[in-house]
Amino acid sequence: MTDRYAVIGHPIAHSKSPLIHAQFARETGQDLAYDAVDVEPEMLPFALRQLHDEGYRGLNVTLPHKTEVAQLCVGVSERAQQAGAVNTLLRVDGGWQGDNTDGDGFWRDLTRLGIGVAGRRVLIVGAGGAVRGILGPLLAARPALLVVSNRNPWKPEALAEQFKEVGSVVPRTHLALKGDRYDLIVNATSAGLSGAMPRLPGQLLADGGACYDLSYGAAFAPFRDWATAQKAAIVADGLGMLVEQAASAFEIWRGVRPPTAGVLQALRAA
Ligand SMILES: NC(=O)c1ccc[n+]([C@@H]2O[C@H](COP(=O)([O-])OP(=O)(O)OC[C@H]3O[C@@H](n4cnc5c(N)ncnc54)[C@H](OP(=O)(O)O)[C@@H]3O)[C@@H](O)[C@H]2O)c1
Questions:
Q1: Which residues are the active-site residues?
Q2: How far apart are CA 42 and CA 202, in angstroms?
Q3: Please, what are the domains in the chain?
Q4: Is the pTM value of this prediction over 0.90?
């Protein structure tokens, strides 16, 4: 029987996961089916039990369930606990094992792009859920400085406190960045979704510096334009991260890492 997988979220029609995993399956010669299942928030516990009963082998989890689903897992990986969110479920006896592949996907995409972090000054703009996922890999790479700045000043403070055993996170407001220079600036805000760009002081990017946006598609435009005006040597969107985090989920389920270049090319062409 064909192994079944799915992405759950609400809404779900926009998800690129079915297309991504279908291509991974083709490229690795794996026989699997992948569905998109719309699950309303109040139905999450029921849906998880039902999909388990129906024999699904693994699930991707997207908004708005990434936080709540952790409470419904029989176990949660250390990196998912650190991120405070689960985006991948693996079927185990009696329920689902939760993991989070966002940080791994981000890190692999930086590596693919040749963006170095060790010994560099790194600024993350934004302090929401996605930042909790990427801080672990960034700190593990030993940057010279890791600053998180945000509109709401309490969120970077809370992140610095949460990650103090892992490494040093310097909390800032955007205004307090004035006069700083960074080798890598990561936009982790959702401002681009409304066509906006966080208000940042000028000249934050060092010569030869790189800019990376977790957003992609139309939401990437404001940060792309800002980064281009800063004369960034590399300006990248988060589509590569999306594909790499999906590849990490596929690897957890199937034990084989799929090639990602073809999927990324197909998504860009779509
Ligand atoms: N490529 C991928 O695979 C991937 C994976 C995960 C997330 N993402 C993207 O990453 C982005 C952030 O996701 P998230 O889950 O962290 O969201 P979130 O938890 O809702 O956090 C949103 C962040 O954006 C800031 N923000 C929103 N509007 C702003 C504005 N107009 N000006 C300045 N700051 C603003 C918020 O600041 P306040 O705290 O001050 O409100 C907060 O720091 C989203 O665009 C998401 O699509 C991409």
A1: 66
A2: 45
A3: 3-100 (3.40.50.10860), 103-240 (3.40.50.720)
A4: yes
CB of 190 within 6 A of ligand 1: the answer is yes
Give the ligand 1 atom nearest the CA of 216. 1
Write the CB contacts of 39 (distance below 8 Å, at least 6 apart in sequence): 8, 9, 10, 12, 47, 65
Tens digits of pLDDT across the chain (270 residues): 899 999 999 999 999 999 999 999 999 999 999 999 999 999 999 999 999 999 999 999 999 999 999 999 999 999 999 999 999 999 999 999 999 999 999 999 999 999 999 999 999 999 998 999 999 999 999 999 999 999 999 999 999 999 999 999 999 999 999 999 999 999 999 999 999 999 999 999 999 999 999 999 999 999 999 999 999 999 999 999 999 999 999 999 999 999 999 999 999 998
Q: How far is the CA of 28 from the centre of ligand 1 (A)?
A: 33
C-beta of residue 83 within 8 angstroms of C-beta of residue 104: no
Using a 6 Å cutoff on CB, does residue 128 contact ligand 1?
A: yes
- Does the beta carbon of 173 sit less than 6 angstroms from any atom of ligand 1? no
Atom of ligand 1 nearest to the CA of 125: 43
Give the residue carrying structure tokens 């066509």: 195
Name the nearest CA neighbour of 266 among 15, 2, 23, 18. 23
Radius of gyration, alpha carbons of the chain: 19
Tell me the C-alpha to C-alpha distance, in Å, between residue 41 and each of 9, 129, 140, 224: 8, 18, 34, 34
Q: Does any ligand 1 atom lie closer than 6 A to the CB of residue 150?
A: yes
